[in-house]
Design brief:
Layout (H helix, E strand, L loop, with lengths): L2 H9 L8 E2 H8 L5 H9 L12 E2 L14 H10 L19
Parallel strand pairs: 1-2
Helix pairs in contact: 1-2, 2-3
Length: 100
């Protein structure tokens, strides 16, 4: 299994109503230095219907400024539809991050 396939497999484990950071995904794949590769893999996500890349945010809870599938507002709408909460600065609240 190549690195992107590993990333996609881990991203699929992030449950509905939760998010993970790029760094968390990199650590779960087994290499904490792969955060940028996680971002790139998600940008070229071959199956967004089954690989929920919108559940991945930066370590501060910021959304992707140029979310690959329609912009930041689309990512926010998808997360809100799953019950994810945001703080007054528009960041995902910490309690919605997975434990990793």
């Amino acid at each position: 299994m190549n690195t992107f396939e590993q990333i996609y497999m881990v991203v699929q484990t992030v449950p509905k109503g939760k998010v993970a950071s790029y760094g968390q995904i990199a650590r779960l794949v087994g290499n904490p230095r792969l955060s940028r590769a996680v971002g790139y893999a998600l940008h070229v996500n071959p199956d967004p219907e089954h690989i929920p890349c919108y559940r991945i945010v930066d370590r501060f809870g910021n959304l992707a400024p140029s979310f690959a599938f329609g912009g930041e507002n689309v990512q926010r709408d998808l997360l809100r539809a799953e019950g994810v909460g945001f703080d007054e600065n528009g960041r995902v609240r910490r309690e919605f991050f997975i434990e990793a």
